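Quick note —
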Amino acid sequence: MLTFAEEFLLLAHDDKSGYFADVAHGVMSAALAGAALMDLALLNRIDMDPQHLMLIDRTLTGEPILDFCLEAITLKAESMKADDWVEELSRHGDELREMALNRLLQRGILKREERRFLWVFNTRVYPTIDNRETVEVKRRISNILFSDEIPDPRDIFLIALADGSDLLSRVFNPDEVDNRRERIQAIVRLDMLGQVVCDYVRDTLNAPLIPPPGI
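Predicted structure written out below.
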């Protein structure tokens, strides 16, 4: 089974161009951190209440991105809330993204290519080798958004994650997404961790840009 981080990247992936949706670095980092936490929760490695995220089982999962985050939680002495952990782990956003991408490459879903842009600059793209997983992720989310189907916990969280990062309106028709706003909000409220992560990612998305010193 794919991790949430991998599914999020596939949801953002355009299999025609090989590029990913232009999600801000901070938003992507927060989304991947939250995705890893949700996987750890579903695997019974962590649990949470409104004030604390608690380590239950430190046994490694075999998934690099999950074990990276699990080890960070294991090494932290003091207790922290879930949104604090999203912030903490999102500082390693580049590493989280690379680990999730590498797993998609290892699974034979994507491949990495260097292409020349304007005959001068090299750019990295990720064409699809096997698009069944990409299609499946997008079809699952579409079926839930545009019907009254009861979502399972994985899809609840993925929708929360995609909504918080403004990805739903990039993947699907924005007007149709707006028309289903009440449905989306009801889905997001079904999961505590999903709502926490969604709120944090949305706050990151809407945070004002702070200019560098001296500007």
